[in-house]
Structure formats: structure tokens, C-alpha cells
Amino acid sequence: MDERKGLSKIRRLRQTWISYQLLSDGLFSVAVAVLLGDITYYILGWNGWWALAAFALTFGILSATRQPWRISKAAVCNFLNISYPELEESSELVIKPANSLNILEKLQCSKVEFALQKLPASPPAFAKRLKIAVTLAVIVVGLSFVIAKIKFNLPASSRYFSGLTIQSSKNTPTEKVLSQIEAVEIKITPPAYTGRPDRVQDKFIIQVEEGSEINWIIHTNIDIKNAFLLFNEKEKLPLSNISNDKKSWKAQKTITQPGFYQVSIDGKLSDFYQIQVIKDATPVIRIKTPKQYTHIDAGEPLKVNLTATLSDDYGITNALIHATVAKGSGEAVKFKEYKINFTTSFKQNDRQYNVQNLFNLPAFNMEPGDELYFYIEAEDNHHQKSRTDAYIVSIQDTAQLLSMDGLINGSNIKPEYFRSERQIILETEALIKARDTIKQDVAKTRSNDLGIDQKLLRLRYGKFLGEEEESGTSENNDDLDKAENFGNAKMVMDAYTDKHDNAEDATFLEPAIKAQLKATLTEMWKAELQLRMYKPSDALPFEYKALRLLKDLQQKSRSYVAKTAYNPPPVKNEKRLSGDLSKISQPVKQQDIKAGNDRYLTLKKSVTILEQLKHTAGLNNSDRITLQLAGQQLSAKASAEPGIYLPAVAAMHRVLAADKSIHTADIVTIEKAIQKTLPSVGAIPSLSQNTADMGLSKSYYKYLNQLNR
Length: 709
Fold this sequence. Notes:
With 709 residues, the protein is α+β, with helices and mostly antiparallel strands. The chain has helices at residues 3-43, 50-66, 73-83, 103-117, 128-152, 398-401, 420-434, 440-462, 489-496, 511-532, 536-556, 601-613, 621-640, 642-657, 664-677, 696-708, and strands at residues 166-167, 181-189, 199-201, 206-209, 212-220, 227-231, 235-238, 240-241, 248-255, 259-265, 268-269, 273-278, 284-289, 293-296, 303-311, 316-327, 334-341, 352-360, 371-380, 385-387, 391-395.
């Protein structure tokens, strides 16, 4: 075998490998194109030419990724060396020039060329990926034919709702339809405010938006004379014929309430079908900032940032801020209302908006002591409105906080130590005003002195919480030097240990007052820190807050007990200690109580009848009437909640229609529905079975018997 034949064998194997790779990529692309074509055509209703675009795109991606044309002759030789041992890993000698081989290589090359002649024209490993691609393409194409067969076998009635996709709900239970019904198409037209498109379904169970318009198209396999829809076992909606052969019937109704309905064809009623109504919810408003009660202390900026989230199930059309400013106090209070629009535009009718607004309180002419009340009101595209609770923003009235009315009015007397924080505030404000006219060292000294005064006041209030003093004085431990106290551990512990649990032992204050007093001490700490850092402007807000907390504590600690006296009736001395009780009679109250009408009496009787049906078959006339009345009450419940009570109504109809063979499952279904309908019975007072000794008497007699043995 000459060199040309060995080299041509390698070239043919390379071409075969490249062809198999390209063919497998093409089959993979066909499978993807067919699958996407089914989705776009049958589900989305798009044009089928999208499949060609999907094929070209997939084939281009696979080819560019794998690049089969770049398979070289050296790669083919490496594959042959691994797959065929008879080549002795020397197949690359065939592709080398003959003049570059030595004597041993030429001998080995002739041996390899003879072995290449026996190799198959297409090795099985080349076709491995191709087999997978063929299998996948066959499965996808077969599935496509099945889907097309199902779609093409739909009844010809689809022409009535052309352009709409028929949707079959997967979550709805299997329906039982009359044998005369061949197919049904129900077109649902939601209200315009929902923004949802029309849809068509092939199931009788419907779930619609409130106010939707429903169109039924029912096709029968035989000619019928009369047909109508029965809603909630009360309202009849006749079906009109739309074909010459009396096999196509239609009806139309606007649904506003949940319930159930049946199809009647020539006097034969179908099973019960649910009607579930999706109510339009009101807008949901969630305010993130500020808090519902916001208090602005002295020195803080008079601005409040409002951020909120507005959401609705179908869209929001408008939102406003209703604000009210209260000025003054008592009978001289005045109110002024404002309506503030958000900067956000609501023309898009989106389902969710993030809105914000900055309240600049001086723009409302608000002064210390005034309050701002506001709430947000939102409106959806169904003209439903909702509003939030009222939020309050108040500005601290420093004039009232620093007033000395308590020293004049006897009913509002303040203890001496309540004036110390007020004096610190006055001196701090005076320091702030005079800071530009005095020397810096003098200003720092005065600020540090105020910090010392704040510390002393804080320690004074800390005694009420049992806090330790910071005096640093040492105790007199002369008693420890005496000989009789040698080894007295308690005295040593009292002298040299620090007890840190005194604050927790201060239980003479109520928990709420104790917590507020701790908050007051915290504000004093912050004020002292700023004063020690020579920042009286930063310390002023903390001082005001501490003073306000102190005044609140003062009002909470007040109590008033009115003086009362008891004036007994005069006693007749002639009857005193005589023991005559003849004119004393026991009070007697007589009242006739008539039992009210129990509207659940029929349901309670029906439970007894159903329990009897579990053991004995058959119903008499009185029992049948009782069950019919109970069925009417369950039907009324099913009109409002069909998902819960509709199976029980259907089971009641089967029980009344059956003569002897009554299924126990139907009885259980009815009993469960009746149990949900009946109100819960309150607990009746009864004697407790457990004695007060908690079983001690039994244990006593048990051990007593053991001792007697």
C-alpha cells in the first residue's frame, strides 16, 4: 500500500467526522426550533416563521462553539491511536512527508498503512453524538404532532371567539358534564379598569374578576329542545339557539357575586359548577417614615421627610396628603387644612409607587407648641379609596416648658430639684448668645462648669435608682483592726467589695417610671458630654428633652384621694338587740324567659337523621323534608362560599335522590359542612374532677399502707 492511500484514508475519516458533527448540530437545532415553534404558535399565537429563526440561531451558536471544521488530520490520528491498538500509536507517520522518515519509521509506516486499510469507513465513536441528536429530534417531532392533533381536533365552535386562545385550567378538578354536551367555550371579558385582556376557557368552573361579562357557547352532540343555566338553584338564564341544527346554544351574564350554577338540557340537570369572584382590593398604603408620633425638640431641624409605598392589584390613579395644622391651645385653638400633591405622576396607572414629600414646617407658619396632623389618601382605577391613620408631628413648646406657673398654682407645685434642669437650660442659652462677645477661654470654662452642674444633677436623680455615688470618699475601717473582729468575713466583704446590684434593688418606683427616669439620666449624660466638649449648642436639645421627661414624671407621680365620710341611718333603740326579723324578707325576682327561635335547629336535626342513615337505609317523609330544608340552608352558604359548601350541596342532592344505596362518604361530607355552619358552643360551668390536694391524699394513704405492712 503506497503513501497516497494511507493519507487518503485519514482524509476520508476527517471528512466523515466533520459531517457527523455538522449533522448532529443540525438535528439539535431542528429539535429546538420545533419546540419553540409549538410554544409560539399554539400557546402565544405567533407566526410559525419564528421556528426558522430559532433554527438558524441555534445552529449558528452550536457551530460557532464546537467549530467542527477545525478538526485536523492530527486530531484524527490521535483518535485512531486511542481507539485502535493495532496502529501501535503510530498513525501520525502516515501524514508526515516520506523524505523526512528514517528507515525504522518507514518500516513502521508501511505496517500502519496496512492496518488502516482494515479500519471501518465510519467508526462508531463518530456517530455517538449523532445518535443522541436523532433520538431527541424524533421525540420532539412526535410530541409536536401530538399537540397539533389535539389542537386540530377542537370543535369547530372556535370560530365564535376567533383570535382568543382557549385556556384549560390545570388546577380545576375534573368536571362531570352531561352526556349531551360535546364541548363548551366560555369567553370572559374582565372590566375595563382591570386592564386584563379577554380570555376563553373550555371548563364550566370559572374564576373571574368582579363585574366580568361571561359568554357561554355550549355545543351538543344531538338536537335538543330546551336549555338553560340555573344559578344558585334560584335564577334561570335561558340559552338561545345559534345554529340551524339546534346543537349550538349561547347565553350571557355579568358576574358580580360568587356562587354556583348548573346546566339544564331537556329537563336534565348537570353537576354543580363553582363561580369564584376575585374582588377588587382597596389600595394599600405603607408609610415608612416618619413614625406615627414625631416630636421635634428644641434645636432640631423643623423638617420631616415622608416616604411611603402605594400598591394596588390593578393600578393607582391618584394620591393626596391631607394635612391639618393646629395652633394655640384650649378654646383658642385654630385649625387650617392643606391638600398636598405628590411630585410623582400617577398617569401610568402602575400597581406600585414609591412616593415621598418633605414637610417644611415653617412654610405652614408653625411655631413651637403647634402640631401637624396628616394622612395619605389613595384612589385606584376603580374609584376605590383608602387612607392611613393620622400621623402627628409636634414642635416642643420651650416657653411652656420653662414656665414657672407651678410656683404660683398650689395644685401644680413642683419640688425644688425640678428647677435645676431649667436653670441649666437658661444658662446654656445665655452662654450661646454671649459666646461671640466673650473670650474663648471664658466660654470654655463656663461650658465646663455647666457640665459639672449637669453631672451633679444626674447623680442626684441617680439616687432614686440606687446608683453608686462618685464622691470617691473612703470608709473608716478602724473596726477591722480590733482583735474580736479577726476572721469576720462579712465585715471584710462589706468594707472592701463594691456592690453593683443596688440599682436593681430600687423597687420603690413603678417599672414605667423607673424606665423613664433611666431615659432622663441618659439625656443628661449626652448633655454633659457636649458641655464638657465645649459644644453648648449641641447640648441644648438633650437638656430640653431631659426637662420634658422630668415634667412628665412629675405629672405621672401625682395622685389625689377624695375625702369621704359614711353617715349611717338612725337606729331605733326599742328594736336594738331584740332579734325581731319579721319585717325582713328575702328579695324575690320572677321573670318569664321564652326560648328564642333556633335558626340552626333544622341543621341539628339533620345531623341526627344522617347518623341514622349510616346504619339504616331509607328516608321517611318527615326526614326527607328536614334534609331538604337543611339543603336550602347549605345552598345559601354555598352561594357566598362555593369552594367550601358546594360539595356538601351536591352530596345532599345525591342523598335525597337515592332510595336505598346511600354512600357513607356523602354523609360525612354533609356533616362536615354542617359542623362548619353551626356556631361554637360556649363552655358550661362544671365541677372540676381534680381535687385541690393534687393527689396528696392518695399518696398519703399509699405510704400509710406500706408502713402498716
